[in-house]
Amino acid sequence: MHYEVVIIGGGAAGLMCAAVAGQRGRRVLVIEHANRVGKKILMSGGGRCNFTNLHTTPAHYLCANPHFCKSALARYQPADFIALVDRHGIAWHEKERGQLFCDESSKQIVRLLLDECALGSVRIEVNCSVQSVSQQGAGFVLDTTLGRIEADSLVIASGGLSIPSMGASGFGYQLARQFGHTVLPTRAGLVPLTLSGTHLEHYAPLAGLSTAAAVRCGARSFEGGLLFTHRGISGPAVLQISSYWQPRDELLIDWLPQQDALEFLQAQQAAHPLAELRTVLSGVLPSRLAQTLCALKLGSKPLRQYRERELRELAAQLQAWPIIASGSEGYRTAEVTLGGVDTHELSSSTMVSKRVENLYFIGEVMDVTGHLGGFNFQWAWACAQAAGAVV
Ligand code: FDA
Hints:
By secondary structure, this protein is of the alpha+beta class. Helices cover 31% and strands 26% of the residues. It folds into 2 domains: 2-188 and 335-388, FAD/NAD(P)-binding domain (3-Layer(bba) Sandwich), CATH 3.50.50.60; 193-328, Translation factors (Elongation Factor Tu (Ef-tu), domain 3), CATH 2.40.30. The longest helix has 14 residues, at 375-388.
């Protein structure tokens, strides 16, 4: 079998690239080792796929080569994917902060991609494994469970390591190394963090409780929900900061992200001098959390008994509460994989390898990782479009 373009991986990036190349008249084959394509799309956004973010900028991505994603993102924007979604009659809504979701189901996004692939006469093979890949002239030969397949161009779209049960594999990294590419160290991102020892003892009783917070790690801070779990902490603010967190980094939690804690305490002292700190905090925080913070560190007495200096100390503690995470839940639950194929060795306008002619890497297998909120799919669409237009 001979194809002009073979794409390994039928996820978001692979299907998008296949559709674009197929519609240009290229003979395209997608090889997917799982029993169906787009599994991560199906489970994304709680089943409604947060398919893009209106506010996408290069600043929403982590990459060792910070300018790399600019070109592709500029050439394929959220409005372009929205136009595609609209053409397919898929109803959508903005949830918050520019995050767009399907009104009905993420199945509609997989359907969209499959319909676009069909328009380009793309052949898709599921349950197909690639045993080996070698170069043949300017092209490639693949040994697969379907037999020998020749390809003029090869696109690696096999994703990262997160959620192995959904088909994730280290295949793309192995192949990149085989062809002389540098693979930057990988680790789980957008992942719940775990606590241990006394930290876990202190906070595990709060499991299930969520609150608004801002979570800081070094110079980075994210505001959003924080959820206590049986193993540690999660929720959007924690998932976001997890991509920047390294073992032994201290997290500083602001429990009152929307207000100045000192002004709040001073106003409460003036208005309710006899009220206990614990009671006053229960007015702005979940009561069990307020009790825990008072029991662990803040103490509690009637507000009139606090001097100005003590109020300042309380405010500082409420806005920079240290929590030491012991680790993360790892790839089992991570939404993304940080690190991957070094983008210094790829063209930022086409995603083609600078080392091997006609070899492309797209999607999560590369060292480009978005923040939470639709940015990862937008990157998948944009880089796939860039490769699909030339492959
Ligand atoms: P993706 O992982 O989608 O596809 C890779 C494909 O390659 C898979 O189908 C895999 O089975 C296949 N494959 C792997 N090894 C292979 C091999 N050896 N041979 C053949 N095939 C192989 N992002 C976002 O923007 N909004 C959201 O709402 C969410 N939600 C979300 C929820 C959950 C639970 C997860 C785990 C992730 C998200 N994400 C997200 C992240 C998003 O899913 C991710 O960034 C994209 O799917 C990446 O697209 P890729 O095509 O690069 O990889």
